[in-house]
Amino acid sequence: MEKQITIIKGDGIGPEIVNEAIKVLDRIAIQYHHTFHYREVLAGGCAIDAYGTSLTQETLDACIHSDSVLLGAVGGPKWDHVDPSIRPEKALLGIRKGMGLYANLRPASILPQLSHTSPLRKDIVDQGIDFMVVRELISGVYFGDKQTTEENGELVAVDQMIYREHEIRRIAHSAFQTARKRHGKVVSVDKANVLDTSRLWRKIVHEVAKEYPDVTLHDMLVDNCAMQIVKQPAQFDVIVTENMFGDILSDEASMITGSIGLIPSASLGEGSIGMYEPIHGSAPDIAGQNIADPIGTILAAGMMLKYSFDLSKESDAITAAVNETLNQGYRTADIMEDGAKQLTCSQMGDKIASCIK
Ligand code: IPM
Ligand code: MG
Description:
Elements: E1 2-10, H1 14-32, E2 35-40, H2 45-51, H3 57-64, E3 68-73, H4 88-98, E4 103-109, H5 122-125, E5 130-136, E6 146-151, E7 154-159, H6 165-180, E8 185-190, H7 196-209, E9 216-221, H8 222-231, E10 238-241, H9 243-256, E11 264-268, E12 274-278, H10 295-307, H11 312-327, E13 330-331, E14 341-342, H12 345-354
Parallel strand pairs: 1-2, 1-3, 3-12, 5-10, 8-9, 8-10, 13-14
Antiparallel strand pairs: 4-5, 4-11, 6-7, 11-12
């Protein structure tokens, strides 16, 4: 198989972690006889420095015209004071929107080897943590009209939260289809006791549910969900929710696994093309030191193989290699523990690549 992958290393630790994911992809290419072509483009803070804007049309075109995008992380304090219209985060939002990637899949699962790193009580962790947050990614308050005006001598800011039926319908399908491949349980999270967008959300999700009689559906209010995720995470299989609730809940979900550096994510639309990235940020404080954890990005590359290229065997080989490396006691600084062997970012990439079978 021959694939064209757009590479966005981004800012902070982005370049370091993406290099390790490429190392692992190259290993897969050799072992399984595929050819991956990489085209590197700039987005985020580094693009502001180079072009004066975080996302150029050429960069977006490169993404759209490839088979998938692998991204490290964007942003950092250096660009905290640039104009909001060109902020590094705008690149992410622009790529998501420009590529039509409405479904963001964020797994929250805990590897047995690392279960002690969870901040939750052991008896809660022992019940198991293994669920998927399916977050709507290109609508809601993130993409509604925004403006700051003056009213009676003071500033007034408005962010419009908007959802259209078709936007809810398609993400609901993503959630039910995801649940079908897992344990067949969807919890739809909203704030239907207050918001109109949530009442519409609930109505449409229930309509779509009729097409999936084999999947169970429960509604949950977002504040309750935030509690349930720490109280009894084992109850969840698939959580589907709107953009901003999903942003917040997926951070909470990743935190309870105790190893945010290990979690990948996939952003998908109608076609097979997607964008894959670790869920952590650019960690500017440790950038350039070769100590970052590349596992989230390596597993993101694995998700790309499965979801965009339909290469499940190869994807599983990456997961297995990560597991084997951890089982052998190798750790990066973020998950270091007594008795383990600490590796640098690039050593971790080497180790995982060498475990690919
Ligand atoms: C995320 C991030 C982004 C978001 C930011 C950087 C715009 O927090 O991917 O979760 O809010 O979507
Ligand atoms: Mg976030």
